[in-house]
Amino acid sequence: MPVRTDIRKILVIGSGPIQIGQGCEFDYSGTQACLALKDLGFEVALVNSNPATIMTDSGTADRVYVEPLTSDSLVGILERERPDALLPTVGGQVALNLFLELESQGHLQRLGVRPLGVTSETVVLTEDRRAFRQLLLQLGLDVIQGDVAHSREAARQIAAGLNFPLVVRTSFTLGGAGGGMVRSIEQFNELIDRVFHQNPAAQMVIEESIVGWKEYELEVMRDSAGTFVVVCGVENVNPMGVHTGDSITCAPCMTLTDREYQQLRDIAKEIFAKVGMETGGANIQFAVHPLTGRIIVVEMNPRVSRSSALVSKATGYPIARIAAQLAVGLTLAELKNEITQTTVAAFEPSIDYVVVKIPRWDFAKYKGASDELGVQMKSVGEVLAFGRTFRDAFQKAWRSLELGYEGWPDLRQTGDELHLSNTQSREEKIATVLDKLSDPTPLLFPALKTALQLGLTAEVIHERTGISLWFVDQLRQLTNLEIQLQNPDDSVLIRAKQDGFTQKSISLLSGIQPTELEARTSALGLRPTFKMVDSCAGEFAAHTPYFYKTFEQHDENVPSAARKIVILGSGPNRIGQGVEFDYSCVHAVRAAQDAGYEVILVNCNPETVSTDHLVSDKLFIEPLHCEDVLDVLRAEKPHGVFVQFGGQSPLKLAKEILAAGFNILGTPQEVIELAENRDAFGTFINKHGFKVPAWSTGLGYADCLAQAESIGYPLLVRPSYVLGGRAMKIVRSEAELKAALAEAVEAAQGHPVLLDKYLEQAIEFDVDLVCDGRSVFIPAVMEHIEEAGIHSGDSTSIIPCLRAPAWLEQKIRVLCSD
Known about the structure:
Helix 1 (25-39) links the parallel strand 1 (9-13) and strand 2. The radius of gyration is 27 Å and the shape is globular. Helix 5 (120-127) crosses helix 6 (129-138). The chain is of the alpha/beta class. The strands form six sheets. It has a seven-stranded antiparallel sheet, sandwiched between helices.
């Protein structure tokens, strides 16, 4: 079918600010959609309020509105732009809810704006828990026992007919917000009282618990001709009871039989057709009873999601880009597979590797917050790892989290002190670990490893956690291999490398010195090889340079002779690091390409635009870990490496990269060291005569206490080499200083801790600048509304400065230029 000619201009709704449950995946999907529509000749207008995204870059759409995502704001934009159509499926729940609001208020009909890809009836049908349940019953499908309540009284009546524990969810929310697992009538009453107090019009879904069932998700596509494909199936390693965004997941599905997979596929196809979704991508979640095989449809999202971004990167099948093309009339048979460039998009990808996603949490930033995982999503980011086996990808994913792990950690390696004190008996240790296995937290899998080390059987672990025996056995193989590595023969070394163990971890486990280990692995021919990510398991030639590392005989990476550079990305989202570094990485790629370089990007965050295989000339999905990065550099031999665009993650690797003989481009290593090392920077400031508050540095607890005495309180405590103000504190007494130093000294990891006089009632400014070595360009000076002492990432800032007189702003510019 040809591209629609009745549409000329399209308005795309973005997702707004990053929040728990909504990361930068919608920046990726929205950017894909806008660029795809522009390539087809449509005029694209975009509205989004997040300034850190590539989506709100001027080149993404013909007109970009950085405006609040409210119905009033959108009505004004619709009246100004007069688009022919609206695309609401690439901005997450925010965009869908706004679409429903505009439709119900009559604005879309009044202005003649047609929705693309989805209708309001479809959104309501899939988001309204009762309506979706009725649809499933009409189709003869099994459903969770329960009902929907619109009041406290109705909620209590529903609960009276069910057995605890119960799962309670609210309709039209993101990431399971407002819901939870309740195990008693007291917990239930407390939850519903809170929800209905906050929103008297809330819809509460109250259902039987299916905690412990296996959970699967299918990413599906459909075009206007009725062609239906399953892009990929994703299996949650965690059983039902943990939100999929907080679960470790893998693709392809590992524990489904072919018969079960075909059942899920048929159900998904039937649901997609019946909900009335015209075209595009969606994801459908299923629960399968581990013993009886009973299948329950959990929910459907009639839009792209975080899982869509994950699957797009896992398979090379660009879901959001294709969904946008389908929405304007094209069919899957008319679109090419971008990986092979010869086959069409009307196919179901087949992959000959395993991908593992692990969420990243930052509970340490929120003292006192519960780290128990349930149906409400709590993770702030995630990482993706490719391997030839589940074990390989699983180890690599833990390394990608940038928490100091070489691979899958046990409780001791996470810093958790609750387990295995030297005074505990083995029985006491087992009891402690079993307790940790009972309730899912971020320490569940480290506790599982410790349980295996203590000799607990796979059956006991499965019974306690609900994790499939297949996954437990895979992890048991890793712990057994660690034992064998204490005195490894050649076969053990080969298997260890193929199962994702780093040289450092093998050296620590075996006691073999790094140089001797390097000689042994080299003699065995154990060198990193790179496999191409394709969507057809090698049946057709793949043309997109998109790679992951493994240890096999055949290397599919053929480095070019072109002049090339490597850009290191930012790794997973976390508190203090969102999508802003992805924005800078993408711009750096484009600028380097314009300068005539082949650009290679290394990153492991599946939500980002930078890990779209069409952005850079070559993409490696690898951890920002020293060994993995150096393996890429040795294979590619670039002219140089950029480390300053990805935030703190690549900066920490600069010294090792330089020591390995590679050039650091842009900001030199000595300048990075000068800026990151508080002691060196303070010395530099004094040397050049800049005014600063009284300061000193300490290298340990006792040293810092001594330095504080000479400066006086209040003090600002700041460790070196940290991101987002980690472990920074304002202290007003020795008691507060002692409490703050424990965390600051640990965060500094042997580097200095800066103690400087805190200036009360001071105004703080942020200055961004660009320097070519001679001239300095300062685009703006930002003034903080809050007084100094609030981290710049948490401050409200304004441009231009309003309180500071012109002479002061000019003086700031001169100081920065000097």
